[in-house]
Write a structure and sequence with these properties.
Elements: H1 2-5, H2 35-48, H3 69-110, E1 125-129, E2 135-140, E3 142-143, H4 154-164, H5 176-188, H6 202-209, H7 224-231, H8 236-252, H9 255-265, E4 272-273, H10 275-283, H11 292-300, H12 314-330, H13 336-344, H14 351-354, H15 359-368, E5 381-385, H16 389-405, E6 414-420, E7 426-430, E8 449-450, H17 456-465, E9 473-476, E10 481-483, E11 487-489, E12 500-503, H18 504-509, H19 513-523, H20 525-534, E13 553-554, H21 556-567, E14 571-573, E15 578-583, E16 591-592, E17 597-600, H22 604-620, E18 634-639, E19 645-651, E20 656-662, H23 677-689, E21 709-710, H24 723-731, H25 737-747
Parallel strand pairs: 1-5, 3-4, 9-21
Antiparallel strand pairs: 1-2, 5-15, 6-7, 6-20, 8-13, 9-12, 10-11, 14-17, 15-16, 18-19, 19-20
Length: 749
């Protein structure tokens, strides 16, 4: 049966003796092979048939048949190349990783404590306070003090992260995704891959801010600006160093410490380094008090601090802040309602920031102090000044009012104003028709212009000191002098008329030129020069007879200070703006000024009589347009040859003010004299300055009406000195011993 079926009979294996060979598992029939391969397989089968099958090793996966021809050769070559590249790349990668680890470790070891990195300025700062102690200006690199992420407003911290690096708290210091995105944007915009957007993380920016640990060396860099430019280079080598430094920062410090360093060192425009300095400068508050809108404005400055500074363009800064607020909302730091509320009520500047950092006054004060306390200081300096911000605003408003209502549009005429107290303390200053600017030409202090008839009070001051009376007479008639080397010179009045015998009071009131020259020649030009110089006019004064008509040049500040000497009773005045200078951390002042009053120049009675004469100028003379309703005022106008300069300087019992008007290129003014627009500017200024102040009488004394005729020393001899003048000369009073010698030469004795 078994044989018929063709199956092998089932026989049990013998337990002992020769073991029967194991049967192979049945295999599926293979496809018939043709050709040489088929014959080879058949021959092999016949040879092994009837023999016991050898024990085989475990089966291996069948290899794919190798490709033949060119394609196979190419594939094998590529496979070999890829395998080689892999073997090289992972070994090279391991070497690079070791090198980077060593480099990071080397930087890590040299990193100081986080607090040591918060202030990297090479220069110090100057903070200026007004006379009440309120901050109104800053100069230099301002550093408001150390802040941390815990001490600033949460809005400020969130705004910085949302703007600069939204994945700051999740990455390890580098952001491959950010770099790839930046490269893609740069290429799309037609720039090089490393030009423009950098894709830097906030940690990398911090590394750049601390210049990769390299400190400023004046022997290596020309200045701090060159040092900063070098620190911010964007070369590939620099980027690699920056990345290594960023990894070291991440290993050394916590995320909040890195952000704190960044917030303390970031430049935020206007000379402010760090968020504390910026919040003080722009908003007048500390960094822990700013709201979301203010925080967004500060964060918006990081992209372009100078261009986006709110003191340069507030609207542009607010628009940028609106974008930052949107980013903060998208990243979950603000709700939609909070974002919209902040965008509707954007941040605005403090009063000090609106004043454009103190303008002309702050510039002038900085020029009066030593450079090592000013522009070159390496310390933080605090200066208390004489500035009265109410008076400063009044002065600016007066200037703006006149130029808006009285000066034709398109005119390039300029003007300057100085307001000071009788002791020389400058309370307000405007150095040009653009009132809220800084770092520009200051016409109040830097311009030297001919003074015209505004110089005449010093001719009359000299005469009164020598004993002349305001009622003394001078003949106003044609008068000529021979000037060596120049020929004959004949002064003329502005009206081209002569008025006969006139008193000194009328001569000053109507600004007559011929009597002023005759009086100057009578008392002596040298004495006039002496008196004017002692009153504070330090510029070189003319030697010729035109001295009396203001042919010399002076600054508005000098002239206003000289008039302050008349108001205070005849003592010299040195205009000053600095009250106290000290270092930020010190309690004792290094420099202190209490007054600008110096030595007496003329006697008090002479100064009071001169004030009486000058009051007539405003009451009924060339200065009537400067009258102040219900308040006494004294002053003098001045117009130079061809009306190139127009002046009006005067005072009340409370303040002295000086006004100059003209063109920077000396172009003659059209239809303007000192008693015109300058007098109106003076009036508008003083009206605003005296708001709320009770009217006080001028310190003046009306003289006894004793009239004598005055003759010049050239070509006629001078009058004999009165007993009063002789007594002053013998007692050494008045102008002192130096003047006594001159008087002896004039009057004998």
């Amino acid at each position: 049966m078994a044989q018929k079926s063709g199956r092998t009979p089932l026989v049990a294996d013998k337990r002992y003796g020769k073991t029967a060979p194991k049967r192979k598992p049945a295999r599926k029939p293979k496809a018939k092979k043709n050709g040489l391969l088929g014959l080879f397989a058949k021959s092999k089968t016949q040879k092994t048939r009837g023999k016991a099958a050898p024990r085989r090793a475990p089966a291996r996966p069948a290899k794919r048949p190798a490709r033949r021809g060119v394609l196979g050769m190419v594939l094998r070559l590529c496979s070999w190349v890829f395998a080689l590249a892999w073997r090289i790349s992972w070994r090279a990668g391991a070497i690079v990783a070791v090198v980077i680890a060593v480099a990071v470790a080397n930087v890590y070891i040299g990193l100081p404590e986080a607090r040591a990195l918060v202030d990297g300025r090479a220069r110090g700062s100057v903070t200026l306070l007004d006379h009440t102690g309120e901050v109104y200006a800053w100069r230099g690199d301002q550093f408001g003090g150390v802040v941390t992420t815990e001490t600033v407003s949460p809005h400020l911290k969130n705004a910085f992260v949302a703007t600069e690096d939204k994945r700051f708290y999740s990455h390890f210091g580098l952001s491959p995704r950010g770099v790839a995105s930046a490269v893609r944007i740069n290429l799309r915009e037609g720039r090089g891959p490393l030009s423009g957007h950098g894709g830097s993380t906030l940690t990398q920016q911090t590394a750049k801010l601390i210049c990769l640990g390299v400190e400023f060396d004046p022997t290596k860099w020309k200045n701090e600006a060159a040092y900063e430019r070098d620190c911010r280079r964007g070369s590939l080598g620099r980027k690699i160093k920056e990345a290594i430094y960023a990894l070291a920062l991440e290993a050394k410090y916590t995320k909040d410490e890195i952000l704190s360093i960044y917030m303390n060192r970031a430049y935020l425009g206007g000379g402010a380094y760090g968020v504390e300095a910026a919040t003080q400068r722009y908003f007048g508050k500390s960094a822990d008090q700013v709201n979301a809108a203010e925080s967004a404005m500060l964060a918006g400055l990081l992209m372009a601090p100078s261009t986006l500074s709110p003191t340069n363009n507030l609207k542009r800064s607010q628009d940028r802040a609106a974008t930052i607020l949107r980013l903060m909302q998208e990243q979950g730091y603000l709700s939609v309602a909070e974002m919209r509320a902040s965008q509707t009520n954007p941040a605005t500047l403090s009063k000090a920031a609106q004043a454009r950092a103190g303008g002309y006054f702050a510039d002038w004060v900085m020029d009066t102090i030593p450079d090592f306390f000013g522009q070159d200081t390496t310390e933080d300096v605090v200066i208390k000044t004489t500035l009265d911000q109410r008076l400063q605003r009044a002065t600016e408003e007066a200037m703006d009012h006149i130029f808006e209502t009285k000066v034709r549009k398109g005119s390039k005429a300029q003007a300057a104003i100085v307001v000071m107290s009788a002791d020389g303390a400058v309370r307000a200053m405007v150095g040009g028709r653009q009132t809220r600017v800084s770092g520009v030409f200051n016409r109040a202090t830097q311009a030297k212009r001919q003074t015209g008839s505004s110089f005449k009070p010093f001719v009359y001051a000299t005469a009164l000191e020598l004993g002349y009376s305001p009622f003394d007479l001078v003949r106003d008639a044609e008068y000529c002098l021979n000037i060596p080397g120049s020929g004959q010179w004949c002064p003329k009045n502005y009206t081209h008329k002569y008025y006969g015998d006139v008193t000194l009071t009328r001569s000053l009131r109507d600004s007559l030129n011929v009597p002023a020259v005759k009086l100057s020649e009578a008392v002596g030009r040298d004495l006039v020069r002496k008196v004017a110089g002692d009153f504070g006019i330090a510029s070189d004064l003319a030697d010729g007879p035109a001295l009396a008509l203001g042919a010399s040049e002076s600054s508005l500040l000098e002239m206003t200070g000289a008039y302050a000497g008349i108001l205070n009773g005849g003592s010299s005045v040195a205009p000053y703006g600095l009250v106290e200078l000290k270092l930020l951390e010190d309690r004792e002042a290094l420099i202190r000024n209490e007054t600008g009053i110096g030595e007496r120049v003329i006697q008090r009675n002479a100064a009071q009589q001169l004030t009486w004469m000058m009051e007539k100028v405003i009451a009924g003379g060339t200065g009537t347009r400067a009258q102040l309703p219900g308040r006494q005022a004294a002053g003098k106008s001045g117009t130079t040859q061809a009306a190139r300069d127009a002046w009006f300087i005067g005072f009340t019992a409370d303040y002295v003010a000086g006004v100059w008007m003209g063109y920077d290129d000396n172009t003659p003014l059209t239809g303007v004299t000192g008693g015109g627009l300058p007098a109106e500017i003076w009036r508008e200024t003083m009206l605003r300055v005296h708001e709320g102040l009770p009217a006080r009488p001028l310190p003046m004394a009306e003289p006894q009406p004793i009239a004598r005729e005055i003759q010049p020393t050239t070509p006629q001899p001078a009058p004999q000195p009165t007993p009063q003048r002789e007594r002053r000369r013998q007692n050494g009073q008045g102008l002192g011993g130096a003047i006594d010698n001159v008087l002896r030469g004039i009057f004998g004795g």
